[in-house]
Each structure stands twice: as structure tokens, then as C-alpha cells.
Predict the structure.
Amino acid sequence: MASTGERMSQNLRLGAFSKATDLQKRIWFALGALIVYRLGTYIPLPGINSAALKDLFSHNSGGLLGMFDMFTGGALSRMTIFALNIMPYISASIIMQLMTTISPSLEAMKKEGANGSKRINQYTRYLTVLITVLQAYGIAVGLEGMASGVVMEGGLFFRFTTVVTLTGGTVFLMWLGEQITQRGIGNGISLIIFTGIVANLPKAVAGTLELGRTGALSTFFILGLIFVVCAVIFLIVFVERAQRRIIVQYPKRQQGGRISGGENTHLPLKINTAGVIPPIFAGSILGLPVTILGLSAAGQSSPEWVTTMMAWMGRGQPAYLIIFVTMIVFFSFFYTAVVFNPQDTAENLKKYGGFVPGIRPGKNTSDYLDKVLTRLTVLGAAYLSAICLLPEILMSQYSVPFYFGGTSLLIVVTVTMDTVTQVQSHLMAHQYEGLIKKSKLRGKRK
């Protein structure tokens, strides 16, 4: 049976959207910010030969280097001011979340509430700058080491301008993502990655159709690809909406001659609690070494071990698949442990008198929740691994564009669902406000 919120969301009309001026402002702000981001992906770094760089990436776009360029919306292949995109911030967030589980001081800071979270976010920003500086310097050195004339005039000044420009671009995107989250709609960081993927999607579709026209891909294969993409999208929507609902019962209480409580509710646990975070985290961590190795391999005097590593990390290679799956599984369990603590949940249920039928409150409830969550996380990790790897194998065998891969589809579908949900929440809140205002006016007239 549908809940009240679900029934209201089904009855939302365009008229409600036209009256929700605050929501319209948020959407326009988010769109404007994303347009600024896309414009920045076409502003090249100073001292770069764009023609030589384009030729270089046309021969070195396979493997994770191409995937990282997909996340940046093509900014890496064009070597623009946003070449590093928001990935250093994601890497810094991973490190800080790991540190909160290791460092007692950071763990205590996290439990302080809003003030503690604010300080941790500030430390994350500082760490982002440090990571960006290191990555930018590595890219500058890698570009200088190429023999294809990508850098017009190398030296200390080129390295300095590259580091300053790339660091400034990443810091600006970090600030822009926070502004979208606060003043726009949806999660700003996710929307930036989403925009980078979607921006090049029409080009990928046109390229695939061109391969079909020239005979490189058969019509039967293209139809099969469309079917696989639709099936993957259906699976993503189904799993992301799936829940394991644990019944929670509250005892009856008498307060002032009135009996309250005694109702049953449920604790929803998603199959994929970590969401889209594990593939993004895995791609972010693998992106830095592969990018530097790819730039180094472009030179004529590249060491043999660099060429060997790039061959191992190619699209569909066993080393690439094993590392990618391992990191997805690790981050699935890690991020699930960060966002849901069975012990704290069991303590809160015990505090307010709630209990799971057949399970004793306290430690037994915590162990039960941990057991259920572990099983769900195993399913979620297997689902993410299948979604991200099965298309990867197809891409390695048939040169299908990255944009039809599981990771890109997962990000696009998940971010779209989250943004639509937030839009519906704002519309329902606007409807509630309208009902409250109408009831107050009727009360005054009476």
C-alpha cells in the first residue's frame, strides 16, 4: 500500500512546479553553475600545444586513462584548467573517512555534531589542496617528458603555472559543488561528475552509429547493445529502490490518561547502502597513477616497466578487472560502515523503547542488524561489481564507448533518481505550505 508521501508525489502537477518559485531559483542556479563548469572544461592550460595533445590522447585513450577523462567531461584530454576535475576532493574525503575510524581525536570530533563536521570538512579542503598540488606537479612533469611537442616551452615556470592553474581549478570546482548543494538542487559533487559524463554522451552515440554505418559494428550488435543498456538501467533502478524492511515495535505507554505507542514501524535497509560511491572512489584512486603512467608512456624514452604497467591496466585486462573489483568491494563495505552503525542504531532503539520482535534489545539487536547489513552489503557489492565489469568486458572486445559502461550508467541513473527525489520533496513541501496557509486564512475568516 502506498504511503501518504508516495500518493502525494504521484499527484504532483505542473501547476505546483510553476508556483514553487524557490525550487525554480534552485534549479536555475544549479544549471548556471554547471554551465560555468562546462565552459571551464574548454579553457586550456597555458603553454600547451592543443593539436599535439589531441593526437597523443587519440592513441592513449584506452584503459583507466579514458575512464578518468570520461569523469572529467573531456577536460583531461584537452588538458584544461579543470583537468583534475573534482577527483582530488573525492580522494581527500576517502582519506578523512578512513582517518575518522583510526584516529580517536577525529572520531571524537565527528561525534560533536555540526561543529565537528564543519572542522572535518575544513581539514578535507586542506587535504584536497595538498593532493591537487602533488597530482598537478606529476602531470606537469609527465607533460614535459613527452617527445611529441605537447609542451611549447618547459621549465620551472611551466611547472609553476600548471600547478597553480590546476589547483585553482579543482578548488573552484570544490567550492562550486558546495554552492550547488546549498543553493541549488541535488548533490553538487555528484552533479559535476554527472554533467561531465552526459556532456559527451551524444558524441558517443553518434560514434557508435557511425561504426554501424561503416560496417565496423553490425546492426545486430548495436541492437544488442541497446538491449544491454536498457537492461542495466532497469537493474540499477530496481536494486537502488529495493529495501530490506526490519519490523520495529514500540510498547504501549500511558501518558496523562492517554495510551500512546504500540504501533509497528520498520527500519529500511537498502541493498546497496553505499550507492554510487564505491565505483567513483575506485576510479578516483586508480585515476592518478594511471594518468601519470599514461603520460609517461607517451614519451619515446619511457622505461619498460611503465609500458608493462600500462599494458596490464588496459581495458579488459585481468589486472585491471581484479583491482577494480577489489576496490569496489572494499569501498562497498567501508562506506556502508561509515553511513550506518548497527550499534548506535540498536542503542537508539533501546533508548526509545523500540525492539525487533524476537530479538533482545541492546547487543543482540546490534548483532542482528550487523548480520543483516553484512548480507545486504555482499549482495550490493556483487551487484556493483557486475554492473561495472560486464560492460567493461564488452568494451574491451568490441570497442564500445565508455559512456555505455556500467560505471557511467550507474552514476547517471543514480544521480538522476536522487535529483528527481529532491525535486519531488521540494514540491511536496511547497504543497504542505500552501495547505497550511489556506487553513490559516480560513481560520481568520471564521
Q: What stands out?
A: The chain has one domain: 4-445. The domain at 4-445 is CATH 1.10.3370.10 (Preprotein translocase SecY subunit).
